[in-house]
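Fig. S4 source data, part A: sequence.
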Amino acid sequence: MESFEALEILRQLFSENHYELYMVGGAVRDLLMDRTPHDYDFATNATPSQMLEMAEKSGIEVIPTGIQYGTVTFRVANESLEITTYRSEGNYSDGRRPDQVTFSTNILDDLSRRDLTINAIALNMLSDTKDYVDPFNGIEDVKNKIIRTVGDPVERFTEDDLRVLRAIRFKFKLGFTFDPTTYKAVMSNWQLLEHISQERITSEFLQILTYGHLDSAEDCYLMDALIKHILPEAYIENVYDCNWWEYKTLFEFPDIETKLAFLLKDYYKDTPKLCSKFKLSNQMTNNIFESVYCKNALEEFGCTEYIIRKLVSECGKDNVLRGFYLYDDIYNLTPPEWSWVKDTIQHTDREYIHTSDLKVRGDDLIALGLTGKTLGEALKYLLDEVLKDQTANTKQNLVQLLEKKYKYLNYQKEC
């Protein structure tokens, strides 16, 4: 929210029409944690039709975003604010969505349907004081950094199968810990993930990898079980420390591609297939594959300027750097070595590393008598020579290299 002008307009609108207005969900939690919310959600006892009527009378633009679910978007002061009618929900027969959603006039009904206590707090926007509605002691759980479900955790999780992963995401994102009952329910209900689409699992998992950290045995056992159930191909059983150091290293990598490459580093040939199964984008799949390729090349051929130039030429600077992060996990580069690596990678911006940088062109090679497949091989050969020695990139020298490699060129010239 860029300003509070929009909020003040809505406060007056709902107050004048004698309807309630509460801020709900993550925004309230974030404010309690002294964080700036990224999204604001509001709830009211006004029905969608009553909200539309209010807006029309006041000349306020509205968008019936999800009117069947009770959500109306108000456009005020160049802001879009979603306000939803209080709801109560029926059974979740499909493990994802309630069979029936009923509008309510009681904020308690709306809070009772939420998954976690820290997300089941409402702030009265029509009060001049901090007037919270907190029926499940969510404020205390925020204060104590506890993840706890609203009511029985098994019941909450089986209502919506995705809630298991959501709970794990919130735990890592906020740096909280599970209360014992909720933790036990998470660890004993992994079968619920079988009913979730791979796209949703991947979305939550990538966020868990983004925010994850390893501060306790709980974190380690949680990650170990999570990897085992959603990416079994990359799971390595360790009865001694539940892969503590593996996960500790995993969360220290700087970006999501490096983290995924680390998980799949021992499955190089199967990486595209595993990434496809995980519904990753083509770009992310390519980055992961090339990062592991770079790590393997560094292990096989060593860390020389030539190898770095060659890898940057083939895979790009970002993936070479990711490959070095994976390489460093094995060989523990020193700070001076890391400095040299980063400088060398960066310096490729000013070096000849692509065929388009060569001082000869395809036409030059054709004039020498090279055609078809041989022409492509010749360009590749010349580029490799220049990657080894940057000073070799002169037209005279490159032609001499070709004449030496392809003896018949000398014959054609003489003819």
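Fig. S4 source data, part B ends here. Residues 243 and 362 are 53 Å apart (CA to CA).
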